[in-house]
Amino acid sequence: MTWFTVIKKSEERTSDNASGRCGLLQTPHGEIQTPVFMPVGTRAAVKGIIPQQLYQTHTQMILSNTYHLLLRPGAAVVEQLGGLHRFMGWDRPILTDSGGYQVFSLSTLNRIGQDEVEFASHIDGAKVVLSPRIAIRVQNQLGADIIMAFDECVALPCRRDRMLESVERTLRWARLSREAHERTEDQLLFGIAQGGTDKELRTYCCEKLIEIGFDGYAIGGLSVGESHEEMIDTVNHTAELLPADKPRYLMGVGTPRDIVAAIAAGIDMFDCVLPTRNARHATAFTHQGTIKLRNETFKLQNEPLDEDCDCYTCRNFSRAYLRHLFMVDEMTGPILVSIHNIAFYQHLMAQARRAIQENRFNDWAARWSRYDMERKNTKKTD
Amino acid sequence: MTWFTVIKKSEERTSDNASGRCGLLQTPHGEIQTPVFMPVGTRAAVKGIIPQQLYQTHTQMILSNTYHLLLRPGAAVVEQLGGLHRFMGWDRPILTDSGGYQVFSLSTLNRIGQDEVEFASHIDGAKVVLSPRIAIRVQNQLGADIIMAFDECVALPCRRDRMLESVERTLRWARLSREAHERTEDQLLFGIAQGGTDKELRTYCCEKLIEIGFDGYAIGGLSVGESHEEMIDTVNHTAELLPADKPRYLMGVGTPRDIVAAIAAGIDMFDCVLPTRNARHATAFTHQGTIKLRNETFKLQNEPLDEDCDCYTCRNFSRAYLRHLFMVDEMTGPILVSIHNIAFYQHLMAQARRAIQENRFNDWAARWSRYDMERKNTKKTD
Fold it and tell me: Which among A273, A313, A311 has a CA at the least distance from the CA of A293?
């Protein structure tokens, strides 16, 4: 079955294989236009936004986290209640990550074995074991449209021998994940390439992953502390190694500038907590850069967050009102700015798709290379 | 101008003057069907619900608080930004209270004078003065469709001489409020009857208020600690004293049982924080009584909060999912249950209006006299 089709490649390609491209991704819950941005719904909920509003932001697909759902409410509970889509009232596609990143970033590790990792839950310290087999079984139970191989993600910078060891473990776990996958008829399984910013290791990891064979390939282990330039350099290198006829997913990235540069490198899928996390901290994305709404400047500004945005928030509320909501701690502040920030990201993706189709991607992308915002680790869990 | 019309009185009337009735209330922002329930938007926002969703709950009108808006962002700011409707993106009618209740319940009083009261802001302790003149000027600036006279509201129980003094002050302030009102062409001004549960004082207060003459009359000072029976006894007594051709508003009430009993007494308008406040504490209204969603019982319940409800929440989410949202502290838990609880109240009002029009109000109301929930002071500020 051909479930991913590249419908248009940028004629202004950056290389033979990797270049900005538009595609269609078929899933049991509908067709997705790529490049696609997935808001993060860690605990089976995108923070502050109910599905009705998320649809209005033109969100096609969301991400949810295996690690968190495994701990609460538990995969068996979600399965018994009809699977993740039914559980969270979201009938468009979902991707679940494998829990690998969270195990290594959120929890206290007790033991890393050959085939499994034992950790203390970040909630109550309870001992939990995850392995490729368990991570895949849990994802089979949750029932997302796309599921991810269980991987190890290390913080950067990292010693080369430690990184090699981690890549070998990730590859071993990728094979075990592939073997464990039982819902091949209705869930796509993606492998995850690791290797930090080491190009040789990235090459090695990609080659081995392609040998195993996956429905799509993710680039993991980036946006964890390295600079924008290092990250994009690695993405350019890695995307080129991946099969042109499979979707490429850059995990946990990023700022508008990161995303635009990664689209140019041939990436098709993104997820990031930035739009919702920034919204909760009163920071809104605009075409002129991000703005911090608590600033006194906005006290009497009767215009919308972004004149070029037609989201629900921008059509109905002023900067002054949104500032007021944050100053008096009203929940609708984070809600309304989350709607806008996600709509802003979805508008960015729509612009990118259109620019590729109209052969003017490079021109359009150049504007975003100066997009003004602080860059930190964007790859947090929301 | 006839801006209030009683279109149907219950044939099963409880007394000659006071009986359940349906009416139409014309305002500059549209026509309201009474009896009407107003969700509380204290700081120019109904907690957790954006206007788009509030419209979907069939909310016709909301209440906002002068006291809070006076402190933040300030009446001049709201006025400069186009008034309260434009500011908060709500284009249906709004009622603002006068701040009287909050001055006496939330702040530290420094001094009660003849014509004014000085208090310390509950936010930063800043000295603030409110008077009938200021409260009305602020409400003229905010621009709600219905505004309230500045009154004194005392806690119950209360000594009779103290209550008499308070009634005299409320009457004096009612006169001053009437004189201060400058937007008589597009804002209705309601007087507020006080007097606690003392029928003689209630009678006296109503007679004097009617002499002054208002566009509508509110019953204040109830649901502040007295029993349901005491409250309804006072409402029955007081409603009967008020002009039949003007709307009657019972402030800050209450539980479904309170509201149904007060409709029987001839009350047309209600506001209360219960649906939203309970929602934030994981308590949902159902036709079988209130339920506390954190209870383990709901862990695997795949049915909606209330089988008889067709709100967005009940059409899309299970009790188990809503419980999960509260257990993991997701904002969408309070959001979704607030939507349901307000829809529940609006459905209650729609049922009441229909029962009156179909001459079966008493039968319908009897079912609600046993509605199961704790009763406390419902007259808090949200």
Answer: A313
Catalytic residue list contains B363: no
Q: Rounded to an integer, what distance in angstroms lies between the CA atom of residue B341 and that of residue B273?
A: 11
> Which amino acid type is present at position A17?
N
Q: Which DSSP state fits A155? A: P
Domain A34-230 CATH class label: alpha beta
Q: Is the peptide bond before B275 cis (omega within 30 degrees of 0)?
A: no
Tell how far CA B212 is from the center of its chain: 23
Rg for chain A, CA atoms, rounded:
20
Structure ipTM: 0.96
pTM of the predicted protein model: 0.96
Whether B83 has its CB under 8 Å from any CB of chain A: the answer is: no
CA angle B6, B8, B9 (to 5 degrees): 95
Q: How far apart are alpha carbons B93 and B215 in whole angstroms?
A: 16
pLDDT in tens, B16-48: 566 899 999 999 999 999 999 999 999 999 999
Are the Cβ atoms of A328 and B302 closer than 8 angstroms?
A: no
CB A46 within 8 A of CB A62: yes
Question: What is the per-residue pLDDT for A16?
Answer: 54
Least-confidence region, from A145-154, A283-292, A341-350, B13-22: B13-22
Contact between residue A27 and residue A145 where contact means Cβ atoms under 8 Å apart: yes
Q: Which residues 6+ apart lie within 8 Å of A161 measured at CB?
A: none
> How many beta-carbon contacts under 8 Å exist across A and B?
108
For chain A, the first-to-last Cα distance in angstroms comes to 34
Q: From the candidates A330, A337, A381, A382, which should be mutated to test the interface with B, based on the most B CB atoms within 10 A? A: A330
Q: Please tell me the distance from the alpha carbon of residue B287 to that of residue B292, in angstroms, as a whole number.
A: 14
Whether B81 and A47 lie within 8 Å, measured CB to CB: no
Residue A327 has pLDDT above 60, yes or no: yes
Q: Kindly report the CA angle at A207 between A201 and A208, in degrees rounded to 5?
A: 90
Query: Could you report the per-residue pLDDT of B337-378, keeping only the tens digit for each?
Result: 999 999 999 999 999 999 999 999 999 999 999 897 655 566
B270/B63 Cα distance (integer angstroms): 10
B300 interaction partners in chain A (CB closer than 8 Å): 77, 80-81
Q: Are B225 and B155 in contact (CB under 8 A)?
A: yes
Model confidence at A171, in pLDDT bands (50, 70, 90)? very high
Question: How confident is the model over A213-235, as a mean pLDDT?
Answer: 94
Give the domain ranges of chain B: 4-278
Measured between beta carbons, the chain B residues lying within 8 angstroms of A45 are 325, 330, 332
Exposed e or buried b per residue across B9-46, where buried means at least 16 C-beta atoms within 10 angstroms of its C-beta? bbebbbeeebbbbbbebbbebeebbbbbbbbbbbbbbb
Cα separation, A266 vs A311, whole angstroms: 28
Residues 88-107 of B with CB under 8 A from A: 88-89
- CA dist A68 → A138, A190, A319 (Å): 11, 20, 34
Q: Where are the alpha helices (DSSP H) in chain B?
A: 51-56, 66-71, 75-80, 84-88, 100-105, 132-142, 160-180, 199-212, 228-241, 256-264, 274-280, 312-316, 319-327, 332-357, 361-368
Architecture of domain B4-278: Alpha-Beta Barrel (3.20)
Chain B residues whose CB is inside 8 A of the A43 CB are: 324-325, 328, 330
Average confidence (pLDDT) over A215-226: 94
